[in-house]
């Protein structure tokens, strides 16, 4: 009774905007920030209910990632630290679109019963709140707090301005009973980075004053600020941050990973002076990164080193460690690891060929981190990346245990670091602590790339030469109803409207290397077209022809 009154009175301050239909989408709710007060409030309620249901701490992040600064958004970090269970997404949609406080209350009561959520007060609900640097973030945070605390006894803990992956990391750490402050995050990343540096083979040049600098485009967002803090804890690696939120530029405007990856041009404040230096772009909430090279006499164009290539570098390093681990007498305690690579159809075909040549098992899922991440949990080591730079490496509990057993032997037995196998086990353990186990993380991804390049003794150019991207082209087509396009087979085949796939096939067949897909965007009101072919002209033509078919 008290609960019903509390909900009704607080919900009466948050009427939904008229004539707007909201959908949880690929990565939570996103819209113009002025439309989101009631949505964020209601996601606050959802997070509190999720905490009740899972008997865990839940996270709520206010961000619209790479979207323009006037947009904002909200998404949930689930008990595991990953994305909200897909099973709850329809409820999220229903809550956000409930036309009145009375409807909202009805929906909540129904759902609580259906899900068997016990509201007897024997679990202390706690929701961790985070937000990026958007000016609308503070007001939306207040709405989220109101939502959480409209469940009797629930606590909303404001963690401040964070990157999205930091919040996911904190939720995961809290639920594992680990220390979970921002300082703990920085310490875990820097200490595992140091561990990997210490394990670089002696003959390889370590950070040597020439190769130790990386220049970061922070998208005028939160990532640059955090990276500066993290950088203070690192030895050897010099991180120069440009386009950080306090530098005064506009978030994601002519800067950031999404811009750099899609347009293949230099972000603001980068130029010919950066030729030959390793450059990285983060996105607005620092869950994506892409590297790039400024070619000599660049007229704004760049050589992009995208998520596919980051994935390939990680896979190569992990494969090398596993081969050491599995050498003869070292076999004993470690079961043969089952490694899986997960990509989307938007991965460049050359990367897939390369990974298969390495003997790796490559799997495909639809676009969206939640799909890749879920697939990656099926392996001892699951490595996933989208071409746009979002990805991570997941380790199964049992594989971590076998690595730990292995490294315990080292500390108990032989004092000297013995075999290659033992060092490889230490490296893999450090890698599992460095790379974010909850979600893709530009900060930890950057540190892992940097230490692997040092380990290999490679320049960014050498890395970029692993394989050559096939020419590709991405387009977006504004359509009346993007949901009219329905796909299957990890978005590689159109099933509706009828006849469209046949028409695409006909166009694709004109080039020996032709590949082409269309799919409705999960974040914008458009249909996306991706084309790959043996020449840039052919890829452009293919994309343009197929765009006309969609229109
Ligand atoms: C979101 C997704 C990303 C996906 C992108 C596709 C998360 C954290 N992010 O940014 O994985 O690649 O949407 O957007 O899930 P699109 O459907 O508009 O191309
Ligand atoms: Zn992002």
UniProtKB/TrEMBL annotation:
Coiled coil: none annotated. Belongs to the phosphohexose mutase family. It catalyses: N-acetyl-alpha-D-glucosamine 1-phosphate = N-acetyl-D-glucosamine 6-phosphate. Substrate binds at residues 386-388, 519-523, 528. The active site is at 65 (phosphoserine intermediate). The keyword Protein biosynthesis does not apply. Mg(2+) binds at residues 65, 283, 285, 287. Keywords: Isomerase, Magnesium, Metal-binding, Phosphoprotein. It is an enzyme of class 5 (isomerase). Binds 1 Mg(2+) ion per subunit. Residues 55-87, 126-175 form the Alpha-D-phosphohexomutase alpha/beta/alpha domain. It comes from Glycine max. One of its GO terms (molecular function) is phosphoacetylglucosamine mutase activity. Residues 495-548 form the Alpha-D-phosphohexomutase C-terminal domain. One of its GO terms (biological process) is carbohydrate metabolic process. Residues 180-290, 306-458 form the Phosphoacetylglucosamine mutase AMG1 domain. Its cofactor is Mg(2+). It comes from the Eukaryota. Its EC number is 5.4.2.3. This is Phosphoacetylglucosamine mutase. Interconverts GlcNAc-6-P and GlcNAc-1-P. Pathway: Nucleotide-sugar biosynthesis; UDP-N-acetyl-alpha-D-glucosamine biosynthesis; N-acetyl-alpha-D-glucosamine 1-phosphate from alpha-D-glucosamine 6-phosphate (route I): step 2/2.
